[in-house]
Prior knowledge:
Layout: H1 10-22, H2 36-43, E1 54-55, H3 60-70, E2 76-77, E3 86-87, E4 90-91, E5 94-97, E6 99-102, E7 108-110, E8 118-119, E9 126-128, E10 135-137, E11 143-145, E12 148-150
Bound molecules: zinc ion (ZN).
Amino acid sequence: MKQRPxxxxxxDIRTSDAIWQKYSLDERYRFSTHSLLSSALEIWQDxxxxxxxxxxxxxxxxxxxxxxxxxxxxxxxxxKDHQKCTKGRMIMPKIIRNAIRCKKCGDVIESKTxxxxxxxxxxxxxVDGGHDYLRRCGNREDWEELSEVEKxxxxxxxx
Length: 159
Ligand SMILES: [Zn+2]
């Protein structure tokens, strides 16, 4: 476990140090320099220590800062960033396959790169855009859509 050091006012430090001195306590019981956890760890030195890695409360952008700064990237951030992966207001799904089947000639045509513009053999329809956008030419009723897109979740992660 990890705990930030306790933050005390000058008054608290003075009061607690006075008590600590009065009873000649060990350093490990000194409230002004110890949290409950750090005291416990000094007392039971062979106690197993576990970092609670899964983090459930803060926004990822906030906890990631702490994660890098204080936890050496050991935390697993379980919260989601609800800021959408957007261009304008649209979610941009990832295109896995950009393809159609022409109902007239039966050709399956697939655009594999952004400028890969392909007509079917009868010339009724065409695909373009590769994995960047789905562009179609021809009459919508002339082809069957075969494209596959990956759903993008709110936090931009693929489902
Ligand atoms: Zn065709």
